[in-house]
Amino acid sequence: MCGIVGIYNPYGLPYDFKDKKLLKNMTLSLHNRGPDEKGVLYSETAYLGHSRLSIVDIETGQQPMYSKEYQIAVTFNGEIFNYIELREELKKKNYKFHTTCDTETLIYLYHEHGHDMLHKLNGQFAFAIVDFNKNRIFLARDRMGIRPLFYTFIKDTLLFSSCIKTILLHPLVAAVFNYKAYHQLINIWTTYGDVTFFKDIYSLTPGEYLEYSKNEMTKKIYWDLSFNEPENLSLDEWKEKIKNALSDATSLRLRADVPVNAYLSGGLDSSITLKLIQNMHKGNLESFSVGFKDQAYDETSYQQLMSDYTKIKNNSIMITSESIGDIFEDIVYHAEQPVYRTAPAPLYYLAKMVKDKGYKVVITGEGADEVAWGYDIFKETYIRYNMAKNPDNPKLLSEMSSLYPYLKQFDKKYRDMLTGFYKRSVIGIDPDSLLFSHTVRMSNGKNVLNFVSPDIKSELSGYNIEDDVIPSLPKDFSRWTILQKTQYLEMKTLLSGYLLSTQGDRMSMAHGVEGRYPFLDYNVVEMFAHVPDNFKLNYMNEKYILKEAFKDILPEAIISRNKYPYRAPEAVSLMTKKVLNQYLNEEVINRQNFFCWKYVSRLIDKLQKNINQNVEISFNDNFTYVNIVGTTMFLSFMDNKYQTFSYQDKQFDIKELEL
Predict the structure, then answer these.
(1) 176 close to 199: Cβ distance less than 8 angstroms
(2) CB neighbours of 545 closer than 8 A, spacing ≥ 6?
């Protein structure tokens, strides 16, 4: 895992882009992603930088890597897990290897196959390959969007990096707020497609590549999730396939020249991966967990259960509301966008604990809820879809009781309120409409519009989220089942845009820790797409096939426990003197002119009263308040062009290569 940066112009770099000191500083700005080594490469058409987190071939895997024989250079962030098999294929074609790292494999694979190489890669990656013979650059990102890659053009010159703040270091790049991104955020809780919160700075989307040469720039999706007819296999046959596929994916992700450990939440997914790792792991294995002082969020008992069951040492950190508030600025800084939830903060602390223990790599259960249908949205959509067809179906009303058992307020009164809400949520909406599964989410987020200033409300009025999402959907999307549509939208929005980025990559790489995700191996994802719907959500029993496949190797209490989504204390965590004095005060709010102080102050008063009287804070108030805090912090960072740290005066050994 690393951080990459580059500048490329096929006509030759203009004078304004030939500042070697600037390239070094841009590379140094990626230090948290790659604290072990730094390297830069200079040529007439390309400047490349690399900040390395050394995991594979520590001795000879330095980057940027250049092949004099083939006139190809690469700067690469990530891991190619099947690089050993690919090396053997390439050796049979007379390629000579000088290292044992996966980076060199990319060079030869590109020389042999061009952009078709991407179909051979099993990994999590973002890379740039400069082909000096053909005078072009090739950027690519992994299928699931686990690793980030951002870019912008200034006339004919391409700038790219793992971090937006690195691109902003260039004096010709402006930090301009992108209102389209905010509109997307309040509708689908994340940005969509290539949109970022910085106007004219784009994200390469999951499963996409970009090629750029003289007079030509091509972007293309090389992989996308699809659903075909389910395979007609028995439950036992599916169980065996799933066990084998996840075992293979986990085994690949244990490849490293440093220790590999695991995150343990106490839920089904992380318990599966921990047990799989234990079955094939050589040497000492440790797990890492977060606990919460507030019992409404705490899963410590299940973490201890798995630790006792596996006899694996579990390291845990206790999170309080105060500790979340203490570092929320850091969360927004590393996320490089407004943050509307506090859930990334405990994971920031978790990665720090891993780093402080001297480790660099962890395996997690992320992705299982998307591929095996574990999230509430699958149950919600099932109920709403069938309610739209038959609103008074008594079976649906009884199934409502399986939703949200983890909430304090889930009693008969709350259930009756929820039934009424879902009935209203389908009035006037075609259940077969393309975005049906996410209409409740889109409705909830818009509460924030009641707090923005008139100028911002005017800016946001011209956007329609359907115009962003619907044109990008697959041609056969309308033929999929309602829950298949739900999965596709969830993976294209919340998974890649939030869970793997704000809550995943940005928090772990803030401390130079690499997360690996067996459930997001593309072979596993594609296999689950063929599993019949009722094997994934079985009469409101989420992730049914996973429970069945692994019930023989896990404690019954883990298999049978209610689904417990990962959450953290929200508004209460940010109702601090620091936040209120530094960000949510009348002077700052009026100067930024994004939110309306009259309404913000009323919300603050309401929340303080609720907290003092121990009254439960509603979802809308939590979402709105955290959004206001996160957006205000983000705007403050933008005022300084998102630069709060300077590396110019720090002493680092930077390897330089000039072509």
Answers:
(1) yes
(2) 235, 238, 239, 242, 372, 531, 535, 536
Give the C-alpha separation, 505 to 492, whole Å. 16
Q: Mind listing the pLDDT tens digit for each residue in 46-79?
A: 999 999 888 887 788 899 999 999 999 999 999 9
What is the distance in angstroms between the CA of the first residue and the CA of the last residue of the chain? 25
State the DSSP H helix or E strand holding residue 288, giving kind and residue range, or none if neither.
strand 286-292
Output DSSP code: residue 599: H
Q: Report the pLDDT averaged over residues 455-478.
A: 94
Q: Is the pLDDT of residue 649 over 60?
A: no
Asked if residue 215 lies in contact with residue 493, where contact means CB atoms within 8 angstroms, the answer is no
Residues 6+ apart with CB under 8 A from 429: 388, 436, 439
Count of other CB atoms within 10 angstroms of residue 282 = 7
Q: What is the pLDDT of residues 305-360, one digit of tens each?
A: 999 999 999 999 999 999 999 999 999 999 999 999 999 999 999 999 999 999 99
Identify the H or E element spanning 79: strand 72-80
540 pLDDT above the threshold of 90: no
Task: Pick the closest to residue 453 from 461, 463, 442, 445 (CA basis).
Answer: 461
Query: CB within 8 A of 358, min separation 6: which ones?
Result: none
DSSP 21-48: HHHHHHHHTTTTT--SEEEEEE-SSEEE
| Residues 397 and 449: beta-carbon distance below 8 Å | no
- CA dist., res. 278 & res. 288, Å (int): 14
Spatial distance between the Cα atoms of 287 and 303, rounded to a whole number of angstroms: 9
Tell me the C-alpha distance between 514 and 256, whole Å: 11
Q: What is the pTM of this model?
A: 0.95
Whose tokens are 């994802």? That residue is 525
Q: Which amino acid is at 280?
A: M
